[in-house]
Specification:
Blueprint: H1 18-30, H2 68-81, H3 85-98, H4 102-114, H5 118-131, H6 136-148, H7 152-165, H8 170-178, H9 184-197, H10 202-214, H11 218-231, H12 236-248, H13 252-265, H14 270-282, H15 286-299, H16 304-316, H17 320-333, H18 337-350, H19 354-362, H20 370-383, H21 387-400, H22 405-418, H23 422-435, H24 440-452, H25 456-469, H26 474-487, H27 491-504, H28 509-521, H29 525-538, H30 542-554, H31 558-571, H32 576-585
Helix pairs in contact: 1-2, 1-4, 2-3, 3-4, 3-5, 4-5, 5-6, 6-7, 8-10, 9-10, 10-11, 10-12, 11-12, 12-13, 13-14, 14-15, 15-16, 16-17, 17-18, 18-19, 18-20, 19-20, 20-21, 20-22, 21-22, 22-23, 22-24, 23-24, 24-25, 25-26, 26-27, 26-28, 27-28, 28-29, 29-30, 30-31, 30-32
Length: 587
């Protein structure tokens, strides 16, 4: 259904969709070569209040238009250009009544819909169907208008005609039409009546299941998908819809089991295998996902989506050689080149092969990865010893992209902090805050750097400035609470901040770690252990491991503490906090 009809704004040029141009061409042809003005050389009547033409001209009165159809079309178009929508609808409805061409009625319908004149839209659509009974767009449009106005039986009559003429995918077509409706309950009720009338047809139940999913009715969708599978066992389309319904119902394991059985029973069913592999990724079962994508890759060695997935899964597994192989192949194929180049740059940066990292980041030309690639180039330059060049690049980027100034200041500050140039980072953030006062991201970043310099007064001041404007800022609550717990003896005050942060984000590993740490400081070792173990389950952050090991050590379970620290050190061999805690306890 066309929603864009005319241009907008002062001094605009006339803009019309293809339908409007066809209508005006048709109207011009009706004039048989005449000009587009009324008899006597006068322009059409003013659109603000066009008077209906009299039935016959009287002495001294204006003559009726030579061609009423042309008159109503032109006045309707000009009225639309001037935002006189009531006038446009009225004239186009009259044009639709006079015309024998369904294009005029279709145009009248779209204008009335655009103007939100439901009665006029229904009248025009009824005329459209009368002139072109075999036009499925006309019947679908009229059905939707009937649904919107509660005329369910009339809507069903039109949709039955669509189903008769719509072919094999007719039920899907009807479901897609009904899915556009805001009143999802009403649309679903209409679809339910249609599928009950065709109860023996599996495609009717599947179409209903799709619409039910769209309407948020997962239980109804599952039941309908089951009915479709009962009537057409092992139907891939129905299995996929059933799996989506199960996921919505938090029954992901059951969905995965169904897809696994289907994929193994029909190993060459590409859509089923791909859906199974993607759901494994969603479930974060990366090893299984990688195996399934490898199987799919054997079926279609040149499928870019599978190669892309294998590349990212290899990164997740830290299998750098495989990741380079897959992503390099993707780049060579000319598919997702910017993304492939970005991740290749990231891999070589991680492996400290900085020249190769710079080469790949430099190949990212456009899209969402372009800016990040430039920031990564600055970071790699700094790691190669060119801090001045890195900072100059970020400064130039701030001039080029002033709207991204905060993000680029943060990137520069992080690079300085990484190289232990905390005083310079503090000065940078202070300059940035002079330009962007009270920006919460800059205040938070400055607080983190200030903590490294033992400027606890500034840490507390900046975090409180954030909380003054946003009392539920989770990051500020957690950072202030943790700092007070770790660097002062204000444990009860720290506990209040951390408790509030945990209420807002109960599954956040960093906040759970903070709660464990403040409980340790308060002497509640068993409670601390409970929180820290939970945090470690959620995250491999070495700081969490350092805290957990310390609590275990203090509680007397030194073998368990050593095991936690050694395991974390294998995962993060360069972690300073782990090395610091090991020096303290394993002298």
């Amino acid at each position: 259904m066309v929603l864009y009809i005319w241009g907008r704004g002062p001094g605009r040029q006339i803009k019309m969709d293809a339908s409007a141009r066809q209508i005006l061409s048709l109207a011009a042809a009706l004039l048989l070569g005449g000009c587009a003005v009324l008899p006597g050389g006068r322009a059409p009547a003013p659109v603000e209040a066009p008077a209906p033409a009299p039935a016959a001209a009287a002495a001294g009165e204006e003559e009726p238009p030579a061609d009423p159809l042309m008159y109503h079309i032109l006045v309707g178009e000009i009225a639309g250009q001037r935002d006189a929508l009531d006038v446009a609808v009225r004239h186009y409805l009259e044009a639709a009544r006079l015309a024998r061409d369904p294009r005029v009625a279709a145009r009248a319908t779209r204008i009335a819909v655009y103007a939100r004149r439901q009665a006029g839209a229904i009248a025009a659509a009824e005329r459209w169907v009368a002139l072109a009974p075999g036009d499925l767009d006309a019947r679908q449009t009229l059905a939707i208008l009937y649904v919107r106005t509660g005329r369910t039986d009339d809507a069903l009559a039109q949709l039955r005609e669509v189903l008769k003429a719509g072919g094999e995918r007719a039920f899907d077509t009807v479901a897609a039409v009904l899915a556009r409706e805001k009143d999802r309950e009403r649309a679903l009720a209409v679809m339910d009546r249609l599928r009950r009338e065709a109860a023996t047809r599996p495609e009717a139940h599947l179409a209903y299941a799709r619409l039910a999913l769209h309407a948020g009715k997962s239980e109804a969708a599952l039941a309908a998908a089951d009915e479709a599978l009962h009537r057409r066992p092992a139907w891939t389309e129905a299995l996929l819809v059933r799996a989506r319904a199960l996921v919505r119902l938090d029954r992901r394991d059951e969905a995965l089991a169904d897809l696994r059985r289907g994929a193994h029973a029909r190993p060459k069913d590409w859509r089923l295998g791909l859906a199974y592999a993607r759901m494994l990724v969603e479930a974060r079962r990366f090893d299984e996902a990688r195996a399934e994508f490898s199987r799919l890759n054997a079926l279609r060695p040149d499928d870019p989506d599978v190669i892309h997935a294998l590349g990212l899964l290899a990164i997740e597994a830290r299998d750098w050689d495989a990741a380079v192989r897959y992503l390099g192949r993707l780049y060579a194929m000319g598919k997702r080149r910017d993304e492939a180049a970005y991740f290749l740059g990231s891999i070589f940066e991680t492996r400290k092969r900085y020249d190769e990292a710079l080469r790949w980041f430099g190949r990212v030309q456009r899209g969402e990865y372009r800016l990040d690639a430039q920031v990564r180039i600055a970071r790699v330059r700094a790691r190669k010893g060119d801090m001045a060049g890195a900072r100059a690049l970020l400064k130039a980027m701030r001039r080029q992209h002033p709207a991204l100034a905060v993000r680029l200041f943060l990137a520069e500050g992080e690079i300085l902090a990484e190289h232990k140039r905390h005083r310079e980072a503090l000065a940078l953030y202070t300059r940035a805050l002079a330009k962007l006062p009270d920006n919460p991201d800059l205040l938070y970043a400055r607080a983190l750097v200030a903590e490294k310099l033992d400027r606890l007064d500034l840490v507390e001041a900046d975090l409180r400035r954030i909380l003054a404007k946003d009392p539920d800022n989770v990051h500020a609550l957690n950072a202030l609470g943790y700092t007070l717990a770790d660097r002062t003896d204000r444990y009860q005050e720290a506990l209040r901040y951390i408790r509030r942060a945990l209420e807002l984000k109960p599954d956040n590993a960093a906040i759970i770690d903070s709660m464990g740490w403040v409980q340790y400081r308060l002497g509640n070792y068993e409670l601390a252990l409970k929180y820290l173990r939970r945090a470690r389950e959620l995250s491999n952050d070495p700081e969490i491991a350092a805290h957990l090991g310390e609590v275990l050590w203090v509680m007397g379970d030194r073998p368990a503490a050593r095991q936690v620290w050694e395991s974390a050190l294998k995962e993060s061999p360069e972690s300073e906090i782990l090395r610091r805690v090991l020096r303290r306890f394993l002298k």
